[in-house]
Amino acid sequence: MKSTIRIFCVIIFFGLFNSVNAQRDVNEDEIIGFACYYAGSPSKTVMKYFKKIAKKDYKWISNRLISDNNAERFMSVLSLEKLKDLNKYVLSVDESKLINKVKKSEDLVYVCGGCTYFESLSLNDLFDNEMSEYGKEYLGRIISQVSDD
Fold first, then answer.
1. Could you tell me the CA-to-CA distances from 30 to 14, 23, 92 in Å, in that order?
2. Which H helix or E strand runs over 109?
3. Which one has a higher pLDDT value, 11 or 24?
4. Using CA atoms, how far apart are residues 41 and 113, in angstroms rounded to an integer?
């Protein structure tokens, strides 16, 4: 009985250790999160987009629709669509096509939230997830703050 409990504890320990290492092995520039880790801070990619929005560097955001970084592609779609919704940006036909392509993509994006949530989702699943709606709301607040300045 004791050996069974020890084996069970060892399995749990290695499982936790591997999931923590998996998070460390991911490039932080490829993680999406609006409230990650213990501090509830935005991920590096999200912060980069906040800065570009503050500078009104919408061309840079548009150019990232074809990035090799799936987190950037996700954030570009969210940002441009939110800017469009707020009548701060007009999408070109080519941008609209690229946005549709990104939304249908099976490419994976890493998502974090809080201390423990870390997962990879395909872009198309992520756009059907509440993360995209939360992201648009969050971006709306950032854009309105920039507009008020």
1. 25, 11, 26
2. strand 108-113
3. 24
4. 9
Q: What is the pLDDT of residues 87-127, one digit of tens each?
A: 999 999 999 999 999 999 999 999 998 888 899 999 999 99
Task: Tell me which residue has tokens 């074809």.
Answer: 66
Token pair for 102: 């990104």
Mean pLDDT along residues 57-79? 97
Q: Which two tokens stand for residue 148?
A: 């008020």
Q: What's CA 7's distance to the chain center, in Å? A: 37
C-alpha span between 70 and 137 (Å, rounded): 20
Task: Assess whether pLDDT exceeds 90 at residue 76.
Answer: yes
C-alpha to C-alpha distance for 71 and 45, rounded to whole angstroms: 7
CB neighbourhood size of 54 (10 A): 13
In terms of Cβ atoms closer than 10 Å to its own Cβ (0-12, 13-18, 19+), residue 83 is: buried
